[in-house]
Predict the structure.
Amino acid sequence: MNALFFYLTLGLYFVATVAYLVYLVKPQQALGSAARWIISTGFLTHCAFTFDRYLEAGHTPITNLHESFSFFSLALVGIFIAFDRRYKLVVLGSFVTPLALVLMGVSTLFPANIAPLNPALKSKWLFFHTTMAFLGYAMFGIAFGAAIMYLIQSHMLKNRKLGAMFQRLPSLDTLDDINYRCLTFGFPLLTFAIIAGAIWAETAWGTYWSWDPKETWSLITWFVYAALLHGRLTTGWRGRKAAILSIVGFCILLFTFIGVNLLLPGLHSYK
């Protein structure tokens, strides 16, 4: 049953991604409604997969790369659906669902078996630390998609190439507002995740901070987004500069999530 939910979700995300990309070319209301229905159905089956795996494993299923990529995708789709309801922007899905699909697809490259938990992971902090981290990641993923849209829209305005794509994308103010809202929600989530991780580390290893590669790069990621939030609140960073920094920050975040686990072994490496 667990595998059935997983591959059903993967299939629905694929169909939804195709629908959203076609919508970007031919924005028809019926197609947009179908894309929303498919991605919402995929989200429900993804929740069923995650809950079923939780029941089977007996703990939050975010303890290996297969589960982590899947949960990242789940969080991203859930946050996207919330933003879509708020802003009524079908086209946002054209830039977000491909990322969710890739994350879900990459999860298939890693073993899906449920192994006994490492003693250090047997803690109540597992749920709080990982859930807050991935919700923060998802917020920054939405900001990444909005930033790409902003740069495309800004480029067309600057070069006065107001073609069909220009008519389909939201205004620069709307995209900048999405970017800002993602930052104001995502940064506290990332902060709480790091704090929860430090408390967990003290109970597991006897120290709040050990400069493990994952901890170091998490701190680098935090500083990048802290600088972006500080710039927006104090010096009025908006528009193109904020969009570029959102993209840079998300690339660093992806290295923290993927690159560190695969290239820099340490206490946080997934087995």
